[in-house]
Amino acid sequence: MGDHRGHIAVLQDDGHLTGAAVAALHAVSGVDTALLRAAKVRPSSANWLHAPWYPYRRGGALTIGRTIWFTGIWFSKHGLGDGSPSSTLRWLLHLAHEVGHLAQAERFGPSLWGKTRYVAAFAWQYATRALLRRRPIHDGSPLEREADAGRRVLRAVVGDQQERHPLVAAVHGHAAPVVERWCVQHRQYLAEIAGRVQAGNLA
Q: Which among 22, 24, 153, 181 could disulfide-bond with 36, CB atoms 3.0 to 4.6 Å apart, if both were Cys?
């Protein structure tokens, strides 16, 4: 599987995020734009462990350092990467979560030791919740909940409009200036939603 992703609106051919996707994800997640531009999205088949190991139909992703590994269904023209506006929305929602992990990975550091500590922190939280029978084991862990703030903001923003929302439509059309303009015009609105998410008043 090559690295050319022209049918996926949020990705450049080399796996970096498009300018429109960077602007939208920064607005909903607060992750630094320089970090978003540096991040690269790759298929799980391109790493020697083929991680993450989610079932094909379910799909999923794993962030290590500045690389986000997505399972194969996300890149398939017959799966979640079919090039449609709804596919763009699905990608944005999942990326809004995964880019939260980019910021966490930066806190642990880019060295091998930092990446090891990063993975160990997640494993410890999952294992602790499993042993204490706290559900959900994965999504309920503190690091996962922290990373999910951006996705919750984006869900609230698009609401019932879904892929018809102007922000999603602009990302789908690679219209970075339109995305940036929308984000500036709605800065206060976005801040209010982010505050509600942080306070736990928005699922």
A: 22
